[in-house]
User: Which sequence fits this backbone?
């Protein structure tokens, strides 16, 4: 099922316009280059990448050598190191990388794919929360989460995964304890080892907190610090341009005036304002400067991002020329929802259009009772007209005697109209619920694809589906995902 992204709830309007051809703030160039080029990666960073990937079970030495010689195109994406892999969109993003890589290599273009682990992020609540279906039919979501016990400014990648998270997940799925959930493991290592076990050597994982990576970004950090005023002015000007065009900034200026560009990490991993003696290894980027560091060090040909990340590039694009960093071709990750076959069959049997699932089960059912619903509405309208006629007659008799009744009558009319409308709507819902089997099937469809009025890929764990479908889940998502597309898909499992 292939549906325009315009029907995806909450889709970023800038991205929709950009996909439609508006390139005022961000160009959409053709994917790929005529030829690759060598990358100036320092030996210590290359070794750190090789060693860290080996630690996670990924052997990438040969790939890194080939890439550094300039024999491959470079594509990159990234994400927070969420517990048990995070939401479904994380899988969709990695699948988009893999699909890009496979499609290009079929056409004779060798590709090196990197996945940036956003270990310097400090949103503990986001990485330590997992939503999974509570049962066979996803009528409710079970939230697995841990209570924050650390400073809100601490980077999460190096924190150990709380035991309560592991206990809840293993108990819910009755799983033996895997090595990527061993005692004391960090969010970074847990996430990386899970991804490595699923995708093997197809992607090279990058820990954003590698000291060697930060050291490689030292010249960029120095430029950002030295040219802070120019950068602030450029961002303010771009903000005005975006707002004039009717778009919102992804990152707002602090106190309405100053944008955060860099942090400094203390010995406990807490992010603080940078000092004059800041060292590259202890420097942490903000949301606005993270892409700059990535593109400065890895020089990717293509960056694959979600809607918010695409909009980041529209906001920071003015900084690339200013700082002498080459901007990659920006591509939108594929958008994929997944559904068991019973859900897809129910949609086909009941002729439910994909966009309908982003409403409610009652609304879908009501639309499939057109004759009965129309009859209820006709009777309600007829009764309302009759009621209003009688009220008007009462007013004609009473108002000459007591003009103070006018306000009371008007208020009563408002209350009567409201309750009359509610009565009709309840009758319609009752009509829709009379077919229990159909009602249950529709509820199953909506709760699978739009649980708690959130689009599935934004909140539901992909690991929940991995537990049931294993390799089939990954194969189907990689097969069906559409990189840089104005459509999303509902994939049957």
Assistant:
């Amino acid at each position: 099922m292939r549906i325009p992204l315009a029907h995806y709830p909450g889709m970023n309007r800038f991205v929709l316009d950009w996909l439609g051809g508006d390139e005022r703030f961000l160009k959409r160039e053709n994917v790929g280059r005529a030829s690759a080029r060598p990358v100036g990666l320092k030996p210590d960073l290359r070794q750190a990448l090789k060693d860290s990937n080996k630690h996670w079970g990924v052997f990438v030495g040969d790939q890194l050598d080939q890439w550094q010689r300039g024999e491959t195109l470079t594509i990159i994406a990234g994400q927070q190191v969420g517990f048990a892999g995070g939401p479904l969109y994380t899988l969709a993003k990695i699948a988009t990388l893999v699909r890009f890589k496979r499609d290009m290599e079929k056409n004779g273009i060798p590709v090196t794919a990197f996945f940036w682990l956003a270990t310097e992020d400090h949103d503990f609540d986001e990485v330590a929360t997992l939503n999974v279906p509570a049962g066979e039919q996803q009528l409710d979501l079970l939230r697995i989460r841990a209570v924050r016990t650390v400073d809100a400014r601490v980077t999460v990648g190096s924190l150990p995964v709380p035991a309560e998270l592991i206990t809840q997940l293993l108990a819910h799925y009755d799983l033996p304890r895997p090595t990527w959930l061993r005692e004391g493991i960090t969010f970074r290592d847990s996430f990386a080892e899970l991804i490595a076990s699923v995708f093997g050597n197809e992607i090279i994982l990058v820990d954003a907190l590698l000291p060697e990576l930060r050291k490689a970004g030292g010249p960029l950090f120095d430029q950002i610090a030295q040219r802070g005023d120019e950068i602030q002015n450029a961002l303010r000007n771009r903000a005005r341009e975006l707002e004039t065009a009717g778009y919102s900034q992804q990152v707002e200026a602090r106190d309405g005036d100053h944008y955060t560009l860099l942090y400094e990490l203390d010995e406990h991993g807490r992010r603080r304002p940078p000092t004059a003696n800041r060292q590259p290894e202890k420097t942490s980027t903000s949301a606005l400067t993270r892409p700059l560091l990535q593109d400065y060090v890895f020089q990717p040909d293509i960056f694959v991002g979600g809607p918010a990340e695409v909009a980041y590039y529209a906001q920071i694009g003015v900084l690339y020329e200013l700082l002498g960093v080459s901007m990659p071709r920006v591509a939108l990750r594929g958008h994929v929802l997944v559904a068991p076959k019973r859900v897809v069959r129910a949609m086909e049997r009941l002729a439910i259009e994909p966009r309908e699932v982003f409403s409610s089960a009652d609304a879908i059912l009501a639309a499939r009772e057109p004759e009965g619903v129309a009859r209820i509405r006709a009777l309600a309208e007829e009764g309302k007209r009759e009621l209003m006629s009688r009220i008007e007659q009462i007013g004609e008799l009473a108002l000459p005697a007591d003009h103070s009744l006018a306000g009371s009558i008007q208020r009563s009319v408002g209350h009567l109209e409201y309750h009359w409308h509610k009565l009709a709507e309840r009758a319609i819902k009752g009509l829709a619920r009379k077919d229990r089997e159909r009602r249950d099937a529709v509820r199953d469809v909506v709760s699978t694809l739009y649980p708690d009025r959130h689009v599935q890929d934004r909140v539901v764990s992909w690991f929940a589906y991995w537990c049931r479908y294993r390799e089939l889940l990954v194969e189907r998502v990689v097969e069906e995902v559409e990189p840089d597309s104005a459509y999303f898909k509902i994939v049957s499992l």
User: Anything to note?
Assistant: The first strand starts at residue 2 and ends at 4. The chain has a mean pLDDT of 89. The radius of gyration is 27 Å.
